[in-house]
Amino acid sequence: MRPQAPGADIVVFSALGKESAAVMDHLEGPLTEHEVRGALFELGEFTGEHATWRVACHETGEGNTAAAALVERAVTEFEPHHIFFVGIAGGIKDVQLCDVVAARHIYDYERGKDEEEGFQARITTHLSTFALVQRAQSVARSETWRNRIRSPLPDRTPKAYVKPLAAGSKVVASERSATARLLARHCGDALAVEMEGYGFLQAAYVNAGVGALVVRGISDLLSDKGEDNDDVWQPAASRCAAAFTFEVLSKLSAAPGRRRGLGNFVGELRRTRQSGGQATIGFGPDHTAVVIGGDGSIERWDLKSGEALPGAPGEAELRLGHQAIVSPSRHSVAIARRTRLELVHFVGTSGEHRRHTAPLAQDEFLVTSGGTVLATHDGRRLAVRDFDDGRILREVPCPQGLAASAISADASVAAMATSNKVHVHQHHRDPIELDIRNRLEILKPGCWLSVSPSGRYVACATFRELRVWLTADQTIVLHREFSRHESADSLGAQGVRLLCTDEGRVLWLRRGLLSQVTHHPEIRHLEQTGRYDDFTVHPDGNLLAAVSGTSLVRTWEWNG
């Protein structure tokens, strides 16, 4: 009989022995071994700030193909919450030896078509999990991760970045090589090049619900291939990548069980400020919840203790309901008032805050999605704005008859819908046009739109149907026709909010009722008390919160 698999919350992969050794230096022993169809995993424990994690480590060998195959094997065996690929990379630009790059996404630079005229690149990408990218950004802003580096570095103070990487099977040894020129031309924002990350993320992508992040330490530079790279800088860069990874892990909360849907009730927070209009809710950083009232008043809570944090008073009513968003990565909110966009920035969990305003045209409205950046639209163009001062970073043209708009957390994906078309804009790519059917196609209203935080999925609901597309190739992953009763129930509904997660799951708030839309014949209402104004899902994907008209904020475990 095959021995039962030991539990493992986290699996960390590395390609080389030096990289694996740097990872296992952070584990508490004694280490145990477990074999999965010939692949050897070593298991130990790591104690973070919020949980003790059981960690399995595995050395894959070099290459995307091996990484993908072994990820699939490990996920099937251990059913982990998160997986990491940790090791070294060659710096392309803007990095020094021992710097760390956590991959926001990874390019497969070798994909293309070899024609008579030459090789035509068709670069594809895979994204790291949004929640882990958010946590990596927070860790990168701090210097405390360096305290985890085992043994001193050779005269280096490393920096950390959350930026793209490129992956392929070639060892790129010169900045004048054909591959280096291809990377500069088609992957210009990639800071480093490696060999396993794309296959790793591709395998993670087909295992929905598993968080995945690639972390690389810079062991050499294209412009400087010294003889001591292998002996000195590879171990040093591996230690830096491992230190950063375990600092990210130390900040993560233990995930709930794998029960689907709304889980255990966590807690109830009571609002003290009363205002007209609908309230908006969001999760901020450092385990905080934030509610913006209909007058722009801000209330905040510490989710660990349930205690109220200092907020900010309101003024006049907002121009429309749900015209406010909460940043999950900084203690900031954006509020659309009648003539201006108001940005409120708190100093951590203290009451100290500053306000910044930017003008809004009469027909310009806040796009109620985003996070690290925000956006507004006026029917002619969607303007991506800096969350600090509201300045416009770039503009995207709007289709005629705009009915709804949404952006990913970093605005790398922007979607805009008319009554029967969805226009998707990906940064540095050609726009995509998707079809959606509606019962009232001649009317401008009647569709609702959501982009998942990473931009992986786009969801649109009309009076007739709901569709969820995979952004990368426009595959429809969820299609549901609405009954006439369900269509009629949407007519005149106020405060409608559609939310798509990074696993492609869809939550819908209509007439104060919170539902999950699936392939099931009936739309399933989730457990609730009273009618809700708004709801949100935590960036880590483990909590759901809703604010009700009875001045209560309720939170549940969520494993969608």
- Say what the CATH topology of the largest domain is: Rossmann fold
CATH superfamily heading of the largest domain: Nucleoside phosphorylase domain
Structural class: mainly beta
Major sheet details? 5 strands, mixed, barrel
* CATH C-level class of the largest domain: Alpha Beta
Second rung of CATH, namely the architecture of the largest domain: 3-Layer(aba) Sandwich
Proportion of residues in helical segments: 10-25%
Describe, in plain words, how this protein is organized in 3D.
- The protein has 560 residues and is mainly β.
- It has 3 domains: 10-251, Rossmann fold (3-Layer(aba) Sandwich); 277-398, Beta Barrel (Lipocalin); 403-550, Methylamine Dehydrogenase, Chain H (7 Propeller), CATH 2.130.10.
- The protein is 15% helix and 41% strand.
- It has 7 helices and 40 strands.
- The strands form 9 sheets. Strands 5-11-10-6-12 form a 5-stranded mixed beta barrel, surrounded by 4 helices. A 4-stranded antiparallel β-sheet has the order 13-40-39-38, with no helix packed on it. It has a 4-stranded antiparallel β-sheet with strand order 14-15-16-17, with no helix packed on it.
- A hairpin with a 5-residue loop joins strand 32 (465-470) and strand 33 (476-481).
- Helix 2 (64-78) packs parallel to helix 5 and helix 3 crosses helix 6.
- It is globular.
- The two termini are 34 Å apart.
- Residues 256-260 have low confidence and may be disordered.
